[in-house]
Amino acid sequence: MRVLFWGTPEFATPALRALVGEGFDVVGVVTQPDRAVGRSRSVLQSSPVKQIAVVEGIHVFQPERPRGDQFLGELARLEADLSVVVAYGHILPKTVIDLPRRGTVNIHGSLLPALRGAAPIQAAIREGLVETGVTIMRMVPALDAGPIILQARTPVLEDETYGELSLRLSELGALALIEALSLMELGGSPEESQDDALATYASKIDRQGTWIDWSASAATVCRLIRSLDPKPGALTMLRGAELKLFGARLAPHAVSMAPGQIQSVDDEGMVIACGEGAVRVTVVQPAGKRRLSPNDWIRGRGAAVGDRFEPAPAAVS
């Protein structure tokens, strides 16, 4: 089977490696253009998917947008049987989806129709789901609404971060993809239409969605912090300065303090009161600085026990 692969971030790399390792003929890779990184923005960095493609000798396409007659002509000349899309970063038009002989399939990081959209893994943690998984689906122009080819389930582990769950789902997705494509090569696999009435959505995370509401329960605050760990990080503010928090766990609520107030700091982390209960964080990152232990942050006079983090800023309409 001749496969055209679409993907950009680290999440997509296990699937590309699996396709190559299982002997599929990957005739091309489409990924995002190289991006400037570093404070000076003077160094261009290739996507993780491009880095693998270069090593494997696979031709790479990097359009700003996956459109245009010239680009479509280049893809048509590849004569791909199937496109595989994994976190590419752009919505594909119908002309692109329908171009390969056998259409286009996608790995989505949830058990569809639950958590359609850009951030399903973060949403699974934030919403406190005990189970999630991956879906191999046939792509259609509507958002994550195509027929389901195959699903694989996994529990969401206690205290699991977005980074940890994303890594597990990327590997699970690669295995499920190979199984689905193998079934297709053996004569096709049944495809099940999604029930749109059961659909939920996980929209792209914006800055407003990263702020911690200390009036919420400790369990809710923990899930938010874990869903944004290791990036982009959960935001709070003290004395007018922003701070990101990582490594959240529930903590004993030993003393009665106002939501957002620092109860204690020791070698095990910083305990902060919530609307109900308390949360312990093990890593902090002041704006523009490296990550620190709460002890080091306190020693640097970033804060003191008894200080209170400010409420989340109101959304700008």
Percent helix, as a range, is 10-25%
| Overall pLDDT metric | 94
Q: What does the main sheet amount to?
A: 7 strands, mixed
SS element count, helices:
8
Structural class: alpha/beta
Beta fraction of the residues? 25-35%
Q: Helix-strand pattern, N to C?
A: EHEEEHEHEHEHEEHHEEEEEH
Lateral arrangement of strands in the main beta sheet: 5-2-1-6-7-8-9
Quote the distance from N terminus to C terminus: 49 Å
Rg over CA atoms: 22 Å
Low-pLDDT runs = none
The general outline is elongated
Number of strands: 14
Account of the 3D structure:
- The longest helix is centred in the middle third of the chain and has 24 residues, at about 160-185.
- The chain has a seven-stranded mixed β-sheet with strand order 5-2-1-6-7-8-9.
- It is α/β, with parallel strands linked by helices and about 325 residues long.
- About 25% of the residues lie in helices and about 25% in strands.
- It is elongated, with a radius of gyration of 22 Å.
- The mean pLDDT is about 95.
- Strand 1 (about 1-5), helix 1 (about 15-20) and strand 2 (about 25-30) form a beta-alpha-beta unit.
Question: How would you briefly describe this protein structure?
Answer:
The protein is α/β, with parallel strands linked by helices. It contains 8 helices and 14 strands.
